[in-house]
Amino acid sequence: MPGDRATARGAAGPLLTTADVCAVFGRTPRTIRNWVQAGHLRPVRVGRSVFFRQEDVDLLAGAEPVPAYEPKDEPWSPRLNGPS
């Protein structure tokens, strides 16, 4: 399957491109690079190309999401929320 990047095969199964991983998570390539630096994903390098194992992406997709920041209903006020 030459030319079909989404189905490239590695020793441990299919390999995904950065674009494929972006599509799975709905994130940008910069975010995927940040995840690599943070150790959330381990890249597989083939020459100058970077791929990710399908099983690693599946594991990350199944991980518990980090809750998003949700602001409080009331506005912050030093009089209300500051030291007493």
Task: Explain what the structure shows.
With 84 residues, the chain is an alpha+beta fold. 37% of the residues lie in helices and 20% in strands. It contains four helices and four strands. It has a four-stranded antiparallel beta sheet with strand order 1-2-4-3. A hairpin with a 2-residue loop joins β3 and β4. The chain is elongated. It starts with 7 loop residues before the first strand and ends with a helix. The mean pLDDT is 78.
Briefly, what is this?
The protein has four helices and four strands, in the order ββααββαα.
Order of helices and strands: EEHHEEHH
Mind summarizing the main beta sheet? 4 strands, antiparallel
Number of helices: 4
Strand runs, count? 4
Largest sheet strand order: 1-2-4-3
Radius of gyration: 19 Å
Which stretches of 5+ consecutive residues score pLDDT under 50? Answer: none
Structural class: alpha+beta
Q: CA-to-CA gap between the ends?
A: 68 Å
Work out the strand percent: 15-25%
Helix content: 25-40%
Shape: elongated
The average pLDDT value, as a whole number, equals 78
List the helices and strands and how they pair.
Blueprint lengths: L7 E3 L2 E5 H8 L3 H10 L4 E4 L2 E5 H9 L15 H4 L3
Antiparallel strand pairs: 1-2, 2-4, 3-4
